[in-house]
Amino acid sequence: MKSIQVEPAGTLRGKIIPPGDKSISHRAAFLGALSSEGISVSNYSTGADCASTLLCLEQVGYGVFREGDRVTVNKGGDPSKTAGILDAGNSGTTARLLCGFLAGIPGRFSVITGDESLQKRPMARVVSPLRTMGARIDGCEGGSYLPLSIRGTRLAGGAFTLTVASAQVKTALILAGLNAQGSVSVVEPLQTRDHTEIMLDHLGVPVRCEAGAVTVYPCSDLPGGSWRVPGDFSSAAFWIVAATIVEGSELVLEGVGANPTRTGLLSHLQKMGANLEWGPQNLAGGEKQADLKVQSTSLKPVVVGEKDIPAMVDELPVLAVAATQATGVSRIEGARELRFKETDRIRAMTEGLKRLGAKIVERDDGWEIEGPVRLHGGTVDGCGDHRIAMALSIAALVADGPVTVEGSGCVEISYPSFYEDLKTVTACGAAS
Ligand code: S3P
Questions:
Q1: Which element (helix H / strand E) includes 270?
Q2: What digits encode the pLDDT tens for the residues 327-338?
Q3: Using an 8 Å Cβ cutoff, are 218 and 206 in contact?
Q4: Alpha-carbon gap, residue 338 to 95, rounded angstroms
Q5: What are 237-247's pLDDT values in tens digits?
Q6: Would the pTM count as exceeding 0.85?
Q7: Do 317 and 387 touch, CB atoms closer than 8 A?
């Protein structure tokens, strides 16, 4: 198992161009596979998760073309191709979106599996509404876990009120709806990331977002399109926190996705007193993006509640790191979903930060964290989860000695160049 030693940082300086957004890249690939003309995007995520989506789509016979950082996916290829077992790897988005995508293709039989972590993640949330549309899906524990087998069939439309706020479930149902015989509408308990809706609208495909419901209609062939994927806000989040808590730092993050359904971390950091400044915004594929300047500052504590979670669900581990440096007690509540991610993120961050001396109490649905604490060096476990490994690496920057992050190789899931970028901004800081 790969591990890395992260040294305490003097200051962080310079600029970072975060990798292409993971959620948007997955969606460009799936929607491209519903289009004869195809969708072609540059700055496609370099992470292993989005590569898993491409491999699965290729395996079931869709046209997938890679050229530099550009990826093009279309309906072409050989859709009658018999696929072997589809391996979603570590990617929940790949597995869940594939379910919605494949369930409505008559005559196609598919088996989806994933790595050890993905096999433990809940799939019933996507399987049961799809079954209501007529999907024929079997799997472990009645279809609650991978591997799942899908016998594609013509699906009926449907109206769904979800009990979990999950953009993956919403998107799986939208993908199924585009292929179904009637419209599909989805009401979420809380608004989740709306990249699929934005992309459909950008392509000119009818999508209605009204009174908290998203409705899509059958569409046998989606129009094509071409654009650049914005930088991943969830990857930028590590640098936003790093530059905030490492004294004397200033970082510019270039071309970051600024979709408000993703940027909840910023409003909370701002309440904590963070020094953040967006540059002028522009649109890419219908998505807002801009440069973001971050300067270090001292922080007040924060309270995060259930309604705040969807817009910052992937950023909570690194927000916990920020809370260790804030003066006072921070409370993060209503985040039980974190227990169902690549690892149990509530447990993983509690254990990791405790090892570095943080005052953190694990709650069933989040944490209570008291700061500021001067963290110390030590060894922590990335738990095979990219966001845990990166969040703990950021914590290491404000420790008083080196921190060894075990299992650091998992950063390749969303941000393969994370440690190279870290080297660049610490080197700039040292030189200045
Ligand atoms: C994602 C949605 C979120 C997020 C995941 C990506 C997406 O998961 O945690 O990293 O691309 O739709 P849930 O929908 O399960 O909350």
A1: helix 264-272
A2: 999 999 999 999
A3: no
A4: 18
A5: 999 999 999 99
A6: yes
A7: yes
